[in-house]
Amino acid sequence: MSATSLSAALPGILDDAKFSRDMEREADHYAVHYLTEKQIPRSHFPLSSTD
User: Lower CB count within 10 Å: N or C terminus of the chain?
Assistant: First the structure.
């Protein structure tokens, strides 16, 4: 891949990465909410120290 091609594609790649992180955070938040709602100990959730 040439430097020109990479520089043209980079903004899209970075946007996709941010979108993926945002989706992961949303999924984690949903999982913690679900566990709480069903009275399942949060220790079953690997990221139980974060919301």
Answer: N
